[in-house]
Amino acid sequence: MAVFLFIVAVITVVIFLFFAFRKVRPEKVPDIPVQKTILQQYVRFYRQLDADRKSIFEDRVNRFLLKTRITGVKTEIDDMDRVFVAAAAIIPIFAFRDWEYRNIHEVLLYPDAFTRNFRIEGAGRDTLGMVGNGPMQNMMILSRKDLRDGFLFEGNDSNPAIHEFVHLIDKTDGATDGLPEILLHHSYALPWIHRMNEEIQKIHAGQSDINPYGASNEAEFLAVVAEYFFNQPEKMSQRHPELYNMLKSIFLPAESSGH
């Protein structure tokens, strides 16, 4: 029995050390000039910043990449994929200078859409991104193809990576409910809930150009309209001015207050 317990203890220590090492082992991080080139060429949000704020954005992208593993699953990934993941993470929290993700350690990139059971072949592959739960807590899964499409095609309202990071932000207060208390000032909570429910009803009635998936529930609504807000701000401000201004007060509060 003593020998058996010793063996179990050794195995436990080895497993612990393996996962501890896996989390802290330095991941390949693109050189700063490479990061800047990719950001300037493909990330609209970054291009619209002034020089000082671009420098801050670059620093936060680099820090995210140093702390978070980006792993390809049955697909090769490159610097562009890594920078796109990091940019998607920083865009929705950029206005909050001291805010960092504490609920994500690794992002898995699948080659394309996958099923809810993580299959990457066959029928039913309609998932573009997912925040992990249970054994996959502190992980995110994204379709590499759709990650790229979200940045490479600027006429696209969709950005699945931003979508999933907004879910992570929403989840920070303990409930993924479309009410990101970490960002949303209490005085805006009730107006936001009211506006959210109004727009969901319009989506159900076919009276809105917002992705119908946003009508699934409040959490999906927040993530879907955040994609729209960051990918197509001019279009949203014209078609949904009230919703646009509310999202601006959530994600870019300094700008919305005129400071």
Description:
- By secondary structure, the chain is of the alpha/beta class.
- Helices cover 55% and strands 7% of the residues.
- The protein has 12 helices and 4 strands, in the order ααααβαβββααααααα.
- It is globular.
Task: Give a quick rundown of the structure.
The chain has helices at residues 2-24, 32-42, 44-47, 51-67, 79-90, 144-152, 160-171, 186-204, 218-231, 233-239, 241-251, 253-256; strands spanning 69-72, 106-110, 129-131, 139-143. It has 259 residues and is of the alpha/beta class.
Number of domains: 2
In angstroms, what is the radius of gyration?
Answer: 20 Å
| CATH homologous superfamily descriptor of the largest domain | Glucose-regulated metallo-peptidase M90, N-terminal domain
Please mark out the parts with pLDDT under 50 across 5 or more consecutive residues, or reply none: 3-26
Cα distance, first to last residue? 69 Å
CATH class category of the largest domain = Mainly Alpha
> Helix content range of the residues, please?
55-70%
Question: Secondary-structure element sequence?
Answer: HHHHEHEEEHHHHHHH
| CATH fold title of the largest domain | Cyclin A, domain 1
The counted number of beta strands is 4
**Main sheet: strand order:** 1-2-4-3
Name the CATH architecture of the largest domain: Orthogonal Bundle
Work out the helix count: 12
What is the overall silhouette? globular
β-sheet strand percentage = 5-15%
**Overall pLDDT metric:** 82
Structural class: alpha/beta
